[in-house]
């Protein structure tokens, strides 16, 4: 509760102060674009945070049952990355490099959950790899014999080996000097893993070859005889 409340306070304070300054005409016209940008950024952050908290609570209370239907995971991923393009650009990153198979990748998935998974992974990459933004982000989907693997890669500091499992625990954050002021609750990856497991798959963290973080989400292919756990 305190981790979440603390995180709610910062965007709310920014929103309130910005709104009051606009109301009182205290913002010079040339600074307006920056103000509007901050307002948009903080409201997106706030709604995503609230969505994550609600999603974790709903799963925990058994109020959310994933609606798994066969569909093309590659097409879903392309749409989500397209939807996030402006957000990525606003954070000063080049367009996401997308590597998808030519053939459809049929997976029994809940599109809303897939979106929550990918948006959380992209948000983390934008947040933790901000210093390496020039290197951009890469999203890859590979179809193997019985599973599809989604990889989200950045060139940031990566996740130390000792923390690679624990980052999926609720509220766990890597203790790093450089991230001391990076906002976050430690709920994002816990949600990603729970949603992946709800598909009968899993989520893991790896080191990206050449440096950076690689987050993998595995989904059983619809044709494979894998039962959801
Ligand atoms: P939050 O970002 O809110 O702290 P998450 O559950 O999404 O929580 O992530 C847990 C922790 O994993 C983060 O605090 C961060 O230390 C680490 N982490 C996640 N993604 C990355 C990444 N792409 N690069 C480096 N560290 C990461």
Describe the structure.
The structure is a single chain. The chain has helices spanning 2-23, 32-60, 73-83, 85-90, 111-128, 188-198; strands spanning 69-72, 97-99, 106-109, 138-143, 147-153, 202-207, 213-220. The chain is an alpha+beta fold. The strands form two sheets. A five-stranded mixed β-sheet has the order 2-4-5-7-6, covered by helices on one side. The chain has a two-stranded antiparallel sheet with strand order 1-3. β6 and β7 (213-220) form a beta hairpin. Bound molecules: adenosine-5'-diphosphate. Adenosine-5'-diphosphate binds next to α5 and α6. GO terms for molecular function: ATP binding; phosphorelay response regulator activity; phosphorelay sensor kinase activity; protein kinase activator activity. Residues 3-223 form the Histidine kinase domain. It catalyses: ATP + protein L-histidine = ADP + protein N-phospho-L-histidine. It comes from Nannocystis pusilla.
Draw up the topology in text.
Layout: H1 2-23, H2 32-60, E1 69-72, H3 73-83, H4 85-90, E2 97-99, E3 106-109, H5 111-128, E4 138-143, E5 147-153, H6 188-198, E6 202-207, E7 213-220
Parallel strand pairs: 2-4
Antiparallel strand pairs: 1-3, 4-5, 5-7, 6-7
Helix pairs in contact: 1-2, 2-6, 3-5, 5-6
EC number: 2.7.13.3
Catalytic activity: ATP + protein L-histidine = ADP + protein N-phospho-L-histidine
Organism: Nannocystis pusilla
